[in-house]
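Input protein
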Amino acid sequence: MGKEYSTYMAKKVHIDDTTSSALNDIMREWLNYQTKRYAFLKKHNQLGTYDKNKCDAYRKTQTFINQKNKTQELFDTRYARAIDIDIQARVESQIKVKELEIDNKEIVLEKKRKDLKAHHKKFRNSQQANYPLEDIQSRYHRYNGILKKVQRLEAKIDKLKKDIKTQKVNIVFGGKKLWQKQFKNHVSYDDWIKQWKQRGDRFECGGSKSEEYGNKQFQMTLNDDNKSYNLRINVPYCLRDTYGDTITIPNIYFKYGHHVIKENVQQHQAYRRAKNNYTNEVNRIKKLNNKTDKEKQHLLNALGQAPKADDYGVKSMSFSIIRKNNGFYIHVSLPNHIPKIQTNDKNGVIGIDINSDNISTATINRQGKLLESHVYRFNFGHKKSSAHREQMIFKHINTIIEDAKKKQKDIAIEILNFTLKKSLAVKGGNKNYNRMIHSFAYQKIKERIRVLCKLNGIKLRPVNPAYTSFIGRVVYSKPYGMSTHQSASYVIARRYYKLKEELLQKKLYFIYKDKTCRLEIPERIFKEQGKQISFQFLRKVYNWFEKELKAPSRFYSEPLRS
């Protein structure tokens, strides 16, 4: 896994018309070069990996005639490499989407194959039993319909695998929405082509800690008020005849991350001063006329080595400028410091269960004893914006992380990278659950937890979530007076230590619609339990339990006691 970065967005910047025109032209040239580069890589089957040497070789072929009537390259090395990296990131993203699509379709295919086998058996039995012709034909049509679905799924999976192998992807620079707009009746082609030519809305450049101010193309300096910044941008070669070598965006403010950016800028300033002083001192010694070469070398040796970037703790600074809502926004990314693991499982574990409307936690000690449990509800409502919802979720996550850091406890969570295949296996094919785990919010929550644990030195261990909700519901919910989600987080925490769950009793007590309910497991299922609870046994009990819940009149219930 690569470095972890934190990105900070500046407030909407106010710039003059000349600078605005320059940024728009840079974005247009950036996109034109990017589309050409992508077409070249696709044509020569080079989309798989990033190669800076090939990138530089292609850059030298893209030239124009400057005002001095000389051939000049469109972009310098930094800009060209940033474009290549962006292309490869887009390609990798689409490949991952295709891989996930294969996983999902293979699950559906597995289920369809089972259905196909069952319907084929019914069809054969109807033939052998001399069923009426209409019944035989009906069963045949069902079987044939499933067979065609299986064949279509197999063909789609084969195509996706072939696309991944050949790195076949389709990228529309500017967005599919704008591309499809040309086919709408309410938009003329002339208006559309005008929008299409101006579709470039961003450009960026990665940095390096050894470069001046952490980036060769974007150099940010702190103003005298210690609150705002000036950003000097190197103009690409193809636009320098029009706008000069550089343009400056003044008075940039950051609502978040100001102290981080300020510290890095000041460290770069100190590093630059030390480096300049060292260079000046070396030049001064070399120009001494009253010293021999041996004496000069002795002075240089005494001077020591040149200042290093690591000695000053400087970081690289990557910049992105995005045009949005008739304005420009500046994004600054800095690598995070990753501390050593500070927690210890001897202190206990916090188990986390993520749900569509809440995050439940359970804290246990080394022996698996429950210490405390919490439910962090979202309470979104209908009027909350996506940004507001995200803020509410992240606030709860920060609370959990701070608690784990304070108590020096590890965190246990469901497996971070399991797909639909695993979700069906562990949750019995619950549609709501599958929909939830594949939602953007769910994945964002888990990624947020992962990143914060890494940045705070908290050990995060993913565990198998198989039947955690079910076990928590029928084993721990009533004795501890917890909800199903709290009980599930308790089971997740126990699985961190690989603790065996208590044997299921023949009589199950659980909470259903604010009532304490009881069900008896049939003897045919319960006798297969053995000494330990197996996933096979749990699957049978779970399937039977879900069927029984559809007929609540069958089981005994009493009001829930407070």
Notes: The chain has a mean pLDDT of 85.
